Amino acid sequence: MTRVQALFIENLKKERKRAGYSQEKLAELVGLTPKYISSLEIGNRFPSPDTIQKIVDVFKMEPYQLLLDSSAPDKSLELEAVKGFEDFLLGKMPEYLREAWKEYFATEAKKPERASI
User: Fold this and answer.
1) Residue 87 counted as domain residue
2) Burial (Cβ within 10 Å: 0-12, 13-18, ≥19) of residue 117
3) How many whole angstroms separate alpha carbon 26 and alpha carbon 34?
4) Which residue, 6, 32, 65, 97, could crosslink 93 as a Cys pair with Cβ 3.0–4.6 Å?
5) Angle at CA of residue 15, ends 29 and 47, nearest 5°
6) How far apart are CA 38 and CA 60, in angstroms?
């Protein structure tokens, strides 16, 4: 299991429990089966980008937040995990989507940062 997968599993469980959802309830809200949610949480499967989007929409969070290491005092470790996930996603995407992804984030990097709450 990769570090990205371990962080995803840890954060998925934490967010599900924080929201007060059972695996069954999360599955219902996301449009998946409870068995699939269970397989995500034990590391037998890793979700597609579409499934990740559905999950974060339910939790009202950004996709990268499922990859943050809350125990890491050094934020560069979080960035490393996010970069690893980005590399994973880019490897799965068709070329035209990879280029659009890179172009979008190059544009976003030029915008001023939003204030944190």
Assistant:
1) yes
2) exposed
3) 8
4) 97
5) 65
6) 21
- Residue 116 lies inside a defined structural domain of this protein: no
CATH code of residue 5: 1.10.260.40
Domain that holds residue 92: 1-111
* pLDDT score, position 30: 95
Summarize pLDDT for 16-40 with one digit per residue, the tens: 999 999 999 999 999 999 999 999 9
Residue in 49, 71, 66, 57 with CA at minimum distance from that of residue 4: 66
User: Could you give the C-alpha distances from 15 to 3, 28, 98, 102, 111, in angstroms and in order?
Assistant: 18, 16, 29, 29, 29
Helices (H), 20-115: 23-30, 34-41, 49-59, 75-92, 95-110
pTM for the whole structure? 0.62
Which parts of the chain register pLDDT below 70? 72-93, 98, 101, 104-117
**What CA–CA distance (Å, rounded) separates 82 from 87?**
9
The number of domains in the chain is 1
